[in-house]
Amino acid sequence: MISKEYKDLAKWSMNFSLHQGCQAARVSVYSGSDTDFEIRDKQLDKLQQSSENQMVLSLYVDGRYGSFSTNRMEKKELSKFITNAVESVRYLTPDTNRQLPNPELYYKGGRPDLALHDPYMDRLQPDEKLQLASDAANEILGTDERILSVQSSYSDGESFSYMVASNGFEGESSVSYFSLTVSVSVKGEGDARPESFWYDQALSYDDLIKKNIGKIALERTLRKLGQKKIESGNYCMVVDNLNSCRLLSPILSALSGAALQQNNSFLLDKKGKQVLSEKVTLMDDPHIPHTFGACYFDNEGVATRKRYIFNKGVLETYFIDTYHALKMGVEPTISNPSHLMMEKGERAMEEMIASVEKGILVTGFNGGNSNSSSGDFSFGMEGFLIEKGKLTQPVSEMNVTGNLLILWNHLSEVGNDPRLDSAYLIPSLRFEDVAFSGL
After folding, report:
1. Which of 38, 45, 15, 37 is nearest to 27 (CA)?
2. Which residues of 25-45 are buried (b: 16+ CB within 10 A; e: fewer)?
3. How far apart are CA 65 and CA 70, in angstroms?
4. 74-96 average pLDDT score
5. Using CA atoms, how far apart are residues 85 and 21, in angstroms rounded to an integer?
6. pLDDT tens-digit series, residues 158-215
7. pLDDT tops 80 at residue 439
């Protein structure tokens, strides 16, 4: 938790800013720590522990706005820092759209704890963390002569924040995380050195899966042996739940207030219209306890709520913060999504694959880009050829191309298998008639 001392310091800094000539101010205080143990081939390769305290001030002066941060958390130094910051803002170009949110939109408090922070964090010892990383690697070391390298890592961290605004907001939050990852490289044909990974992460230590991470990483790597390009063409495409978010991310970016206000979104003026397949129902549900992304307010203090982003393919929500809402002359919604859930289908990925006569399973996207104005995209990919419901040839060094709106209208099935260790619960997806370029 943020200490009372730091909370009082944030309030003092806000009031001092107003005394120096600000018409409005928002002050956020952050405190956190992270640990990372990394082992490569039985040797401790990296040990990193860090902690940070930071104050961020948003200052509104004579129709101008500036944001400043510092880790100097003493009144004597802050008074000089704030005085200089206020004077600096006066040199900026006026922008009357820079305002604090309407106080009516703020989170007012009183809701149950979302259970995002594990108090066990303070009792974990360094040797326990190192042992977890070692055990994950030892699952596979020496089990296959083709293994060239095994890297395992354990990470954890916690962060606390407190925010206060001069027009009536006060709120705080805390979150922890725990993560275990194994990466493996093996000797392939000729100079080929396939590599892959597996991981788990959780909000609490007891929920972290601590076994079979290494074994799954090795299995995923060995499946890549013999990767090659296949013939270009249009295929049925199945995307696993580890990579399905990659296809959703450009959609979410196109919904942001910044993209809309700058006419740099292929979803501009699409609200209320059918833009994706009827199979796409996507909801932001940020008040589910003990889930990644859960929160009661956004980075402006605006209260979050359960809302549809897409309802059977119809666009219902843009992510518009106060500034861009004023620029566009519309009502604000929320600055960004929190905990996204796509309505699940009935079948797991394996069942979807079994029904594909000829297609490609995508198990990784490698680089690429998408055009935020048109929705055109080209992503590098790797995965497997599907023939008569079976995974046959491992494939790589191919591109999948098209337009995001067309692609999502070719969505034919949503799986029932989202990963739960993410703020975006997107299951495996099946698309029809997708262009792949290879040979």
Report:
1. 15
2. bbbbbbbbeebbbbbeeeeee
3. 17
4. 96
5. 11
6. 999 999 999 999 999 999 999 999 999 999 888 889 999 999 999 999 999 999 999 9
7. no
